Amino acid sequence: MDFIPLWVLVFVVISAFSPSIVVSKDYSDLILGLAKQPETVDWIKELRRKIHGYPELAYEEFETSKLIRGELDRMGISYRYPLAGTGIRAWIGTGGPPFVALRADMDALPIQEGVEWEHKSKVPGKMHACGHDAHVAMLLGATKILKFRENYLKGTVVLIFQPAEEAGVGAKRMIKDGALENVEAIFAVHINPNLPTSVIGSRSGPLLAGSGFFKAVITGKGGSPENPHLSIDATLAASMAVISLQNIVSREADPLDSQVVSVASFNGGNNLDIIPESVVLGGTFRAFSNQTIYQIRRRIEEVIVEQTKVYRCSSTVDFFEREQPILPPTVNDERMYEHMRKVAVDLVGSENYKVVAPLMGAEDFSFYSEHVPAAFFFIGIRNETLGSIHSAHSPYFMIDEDALPIGSAIHATIAERYLNEHQ
Ligand SMILES: *[C@@H]1O[C@H](CO)[C@@H](O)[C@H](O)[C@H]1NC(C)=O
Ligand SMILES: *[C@@H]1O[C@H](CO)[C@@H](O)[C@H](O)[C@H]1NC(C)=O
Ligand SMILES: [Zn+2]
Ligand SMILES: [Zn+2]
């Protein structure tokens, strides 16, 4: 208790008698005060470091999930487990409507950490290189604040800890297992190394691209290259297909509707004296509307099949839709975005809020945003002094942990204020 500054205690006492204090600047200061208590800050950072030290890949987040449940148990918070294998749905508040959800992802990446520091990954070849360790820590920080505010909550806050964002589309399985039951709005944050520490950024409408992958097998007839007329050249057919794929975006897309088709892999034959039987090529495609992403999918298939037919080859195109369905774009609902923006501006000031450009990266949070109004936002972790300047998925990725308590405060405030404003 001696860590709590006097003015925080004063606000706590005041708010106990007048819950209506909640829209004011004083309320924002109260929540920030709670998040910035040294013991809370240390606890949030320690959680993040523990998770960072033992990264687990998609659907293997057993220890991470156990750590989260341990903290929930200690705080006396009810939850349902498991959803989607290792996922958790916890809740705080009245247990009745309205229900608002906050989501964190738990999985790491198959990357060997290149940063030398005390809490470096202890698991060879695995690393939290996308900050999901920080997302879990921030959400647990918010949980602590919301638990403290439980008597004032005018509804229920649902806390979603999700597996397999990087691979395996955990969001989709979480929804199937009931993560969004009764939920009418959802919010999530992602750390961002392009924004300075604790700067918040987002935009209304499309924020992250929809994304899919394709792999095509082009089959001709193998043979000896000195007698080309006796073979059917899959290399030539595949090459023409690669060129034709370039025209989908350049000639068929609205130039104001950003899209990408990239061939990233092209393999066939390994002998300089044999025309190969087949060539395998593949890549990725991105777009900012659901309609466009499926339109591109259809055109990639048509272009490859028809173009290679011109050269007498046959082709099959696989979009991996069973293992890794096409991700819809992440589109921020205008009202949810505005709610999130107001909260962020109240907490960090308008000088620390940035409207960001859409990004070609993708997130499976988009599956939640297909079901309920949603807003996704970024919190900056860039600090030149610390060296937290590397992009996500880099082996040198690191974060400025000073952003964590701010992220917790914003989460908690988004949820509590949402409930107040949606009675
Ligand atoms: C996106 O398109 C797919 C395929 O047409 C459809 O199954 C899905 O429901 C659509 N999602 C939205 C949000 O429109
Ligand atoms: C960067 O980190 C250093 C060391 O923790 C800190 O003193 C400084 O205030 C940070 N800079 C920003 C912009 O947050
Ligand atoms: Zn990632
Ligand atoms: Zn991520």
UniProtKB/TrEMBL annotation:
Cofactor(s) of this protein: Mn(2+)
Signal peptide: 1-24
Cross-referenced Gene3D superfamilies: 3.30.70.360, Zn peptidases (3.40.630.10)
Record keywords: Hydrolase, Manganese, Metal-binding, Signal
Domain Peptidase M20 dimerisation intervals: 210-309
Pfam family, one: M20_dimer
One MF term in the entry's GO annotations: hydrolase activity
Keyword GTP-binding assigned: no
Entry similarity comment: Belongs to the peptidase M20 family.
Name of the featured protein: Peptidase M20 dimerisation domain-containing protein
Organism: Kingdonia uniflora
